[in-house]
Amino acid sequence: MTMEDTVPGTGTAAPATRYPLDPLSGAEIEAAAAIITGSEYASPTLKFVMIQLAEPEKTPDLTFRTDVPRRAFASMYDAAAKMIYEAVVDLGARVIDSWTAVPGRFPSYLVEHMTGVEEKVREDPRWQEAMRKRGVTDFSLAMIDPWPAGYYGAGDHYDNSPLICRPLTFMRAAPSEHGYARPVEGLIVTFDLDAMEVIDIEDHGVVPLPPTAGNYSEQFMFSPDNRPAFTQFRDDVKPIEITQPDGPSFTVDGWKVQWQKWSLRIGFNPREGITIHEVTYTDRGQTRPILYRGSLSEMVVPYGDTSPTHWNKNVFDMGEVGMGFSANPLTLGCDCLGEIHYFDGTVNDSDGNAVTIPNAICMHEEDFGISWKHTDFRTGEVEVRRSRRLVVSMICTVGNYEYGFFWYFYNDASIEVEVKLSGVLTTGAVADGETPRWGKMVAPGIYGPNHQHFFNFRLDMSIDGAGNSVYEVDSVPEPDPALNPHRNAWITQDTLVASEAEGARDWNWETGRYWKVTNPSKVNELGAPVAYKLVPKEIVPVMVQEGSYIYDRARFVQHNLWVTKYDPAEMFAAGNYMYQSADMQGLPEFVADDAPLEDTDVVLWYTLGAHHVVRPEDWPVMPCAYTGFHLKPLGFFDGNPALDLPPSPPKACHHH
Question: Is 158 tagged catalytic?
Fold first, then answer.
């Protein structure tokens, strides 16, 4: 491939030859679209949903030649035919390698759906009449969020429907004011995204708009009717500056990053956003693979409120909207801090034009406290080393919520994935004096419904190579009474996850359960197979109940860990297309063939959650909530891999 573009985040010319896993450039996206629109398959009503790299097949030795053909994968939607199409395009040969129709499915949002719905709803006379009943006459201040429609049962008006969404309405009191402070309760719109018109209006009764503002910007924050009310910004916050006089410790070559002993490649696409590839660690001169590919596989936000406006809120923010499309342009000194390298994200619009999200991915280093320390109390000698981590992050805005996705690489060879949740609660309104049953009050007249967030991460493991096995590890009291006379002994028990039928696993608090991925053909100096372990950070109970419409659609949330044999077609935990779908897709289908898992190419699918019973302190904008997991070496090395960290000079620690 010889198309020239720019190196992400630099504005400088990129090399003509791209690595096979590099994301598509803007020129490549537009070339793929042009090849399709100029082909026999094109139609006047064909729209592009997502155009991204068609990743080449994994090789046995986990390496690629640089002359692998560059191919694009495009998903498209033709509203007139009511059909999804998929194409793989060879960009060098300028030919379509494959064209596939996908009947009976709906696509994720097209780009224009996120903005075009609001204007059309405001023009609808039925909606306007419902707003007048609530005392609203200035419709220009209405804020209308186009929520995905979900699925609500066979036999109703959603069957055989067009592509629809279910917009919810909020009112601003002034332009730029915080609209979520005044939800319009009970007013539900059904909207045809094919025809871009309102199908139906449901009005379940007038609930007064909440009386108080909930602003957090400087423009409005100090208004006396704001909740909470402040009079000024704090005046005792002294500046903190993060400096690296000699520059950062990482190097960047296109999308390849090297930092200390780590090497990895960063990717980006419209659906997943950040992807992480070919993660290796150099151990005393030997480059050792750990993770072939890591990414967010799916997420869903099920709500636990049975009132008309909220009961059917079950959004797959990745599969129904797209994390890459939702990525923020990050700003120096605010979202990230220090010596920063940015990567631009490139996505497409529905006509196949490339759209650049500047600074979509931020990368920097952080001090992370003590890595290890010991004081010899007899001699007074102290040895201490400070931990540092490389941070690769993306922050996405999906309507009211912000999701931050952070990949941390530590200099003790561990990896952490963290999700930070912020932004604004989805709000409901209640009449004065009422108390919501399925949520909590956050301000006068405003409540936040009970809800949860679940994220599934797909981890294509390669612990010292592709032949891996997965074990569940439990800590239990010594089971043999003869070996436990003092009633204090305990052991660990390893259970092999032998096949996909056993691949859906649950965490157990009583046994301190974790999972390890071993390479049975590689042993450390103690004779044990080398391994990494997956350690949960926080486990939340699943409130999604069998019999609900979301249960089958989001079956991946029912287990903390799923293990499958590698299959390049198995990428998304809830399936490729779940919009308006009733059936079970994704992981339950992937494990149905019961493929053997011992000493093979395994993929971990880890589900983590955030359990949100809202607080007044979450209003009007939510302090970050955190959830995630760790991958830690377990006999992968012959000792502490951070032992060779250099001491920090005193001047680097003490400024006075």
Answer: no
What is the rounded distance in angstroms from the CA atom of residue 551 to the CA atom of residue 105?
18
What SS3 class is residue 651?
helix
Cross-strand pairs, 605: 458, 562
CA 92 to chain centre: 32
Give the whole-number percent of the chain exceeding pLDDT 70: 96
| Contacts of residue 195, Cβ cutoff 8 Å, sequence gap at least 6 | 79, 162
Nearest CA among 537, 571, 535, 335 for reference residue 419: 537
| Single-letter amino acid code for the residue at 331 | T
From 109, 303, 401, 408, active-site residue = 401
Q: What is the pTM of this model?
A: 0.95
- 97 catalytic? Reply is no
Give the alpha-carbon dihedral of 578, 584, 586, 587, to 10 degrees.
150
* Assigned token pair, 607: 């589900």
Write out pLDDT tens, residues 455-509.
999 999 999 998 999 999 999 999 999 999 999 999 999 999 999 999 999 999 9
| Per-residue pLDDT tens digits for 609-622 | 999 999 999 999 99
pLDDT at residue number 158: 53
In angstroms, the CA 436 to CA 445 distance is 10
In sequence order, which residues have a C-beta less than 8 Å from that of residue 378 and are 6 or more positions away? none
Are the CB atoms for 413 and 261 separated by under 8 Å? yes
Candidate list 78, 317, 412, 460, residue with the active-site label? 317
Strands (E), 222-340: 250-253, 256-259, 262-269, 273-283, 286-302, 314-315
How far is 619 from 614, CA to CA, in rounded Å? 9
Does pLDDT of 170 surpass 80? Answer: yes
Q: Which DSSP category does 337 fall into?
A: -
Report, as an integer, the average pLDDT of 58-72.
85
CA angle 362, 363, 368 (to 5 degrees): 120
